[in-house]
Design goal:
Length: 432
Amino acid sequence: MIRFRPRIEPALAAGASALLLTVLFAAGCASSVHYVRPAGPLQTNYVGGTVQHVSLGQGPPDAWWTLLGSDEINRVVALALQNNQSIAAAQAHLAAAREHIHAARGALYPEVDAAAGVQRTRFGAPVLGPLAKDFPIFSAYSAGPVVSYDFDLFGATRARVDQAAAAAQYESAELGAVALSVSGNVVIEMLEIASLRAQIHVAQEIVADDEHMLSLIRAAREAGAVSGMDVLSAQSQTDHDRTFLPPLYQQLSAAQDALAALSGVATADWTPIDVELTTLRLADDLPVALPSELVHRRPDIGAAEAQLHAASAAVGIATANMYPHVAVSARLGEEGLLGGGPSETAWSVLGGLTGPIFHGGALTAERRAAQDEYQSAFAAYRQTVLSAFSQVAASLQALGNDADSLLTQQRALESASPSLFVLRRCGLVLTA
């Protein structure tokens, strides 16, 4: 076997050394793009006035539905959080995003591969000179490990890791949003069931009163005290009030079916939930997080911040692409002839440097585009925060308005009660 030892010209070696020093200097001077979390809001309140039963400070607990004090609601919410398929899908997305982080981090380490090759060769005069015609055609093989490493001097790989981490942060926020939506919808459906059951109970009482009134009027008709028109009128009122029941039963069935779907249970296997309004209680004091804390608690704000983080990493990748790329690979293995004969261990080391010189302005344009996308993500983040504040403010104002409405309804009831008592005393209202 003939071995050749390459000779590096002194001028070429000096030029390569100067180029490598320039690259290393540029790597030290290039400013990496690091994500900086947006500053928190300065506001300390959501609305100008004060709202009853609200304490600004520590936010509600993660299991906020426990404030209703219903063991049945707690049980069904726990079932839904465990079995809901939307939550299962979000969990799978988050698991995949976390694996992408590990995959991106793998590029920070050397890569080791196994390589094997077979070749059939005949040397020509340019390689061995005129004597090459005396060399026969031969078949050779090589096999062994190959190690390669990318130095990542300008942070492109680290930026991709950062981008993958931002994607996982986004999926985590999405999972929180789905879980919050599921728990909220479960509570809404159960409150709807409790409300419908109360309405059905009232409607049944009204129909029972109508039937009792109808029996009294019929008795009065037989005694000649009232006319047949009074009987027909009472019968019509009874039939009219019965029409309220079928729609209520339909709404109750729909709410039970929706609750089954949220809980991840087939409708045929679902046991209807019986929850009563009288078993529920409202918190005497509603805890609401301060604006500075809300930006860390709401999943939609977390998702918007994750998108901002990913946009920042994209700027880092586009910036790194504008600088040279340095990589090295090494190979160690056995080489020999297929026709037999001795084999020997051979090795090689190869370093490579690729630097952009002219790309028609594409790299600069891509960096500017990444910067513009970052500004867009930042504006979307700020809008999400403003919308969140607006929603909380509207909810707090609605809470105050509902309290005023309940107070006026209570006063109306208190005012009507004496009138009803006087009518009953005078015999103008029939009672059982």
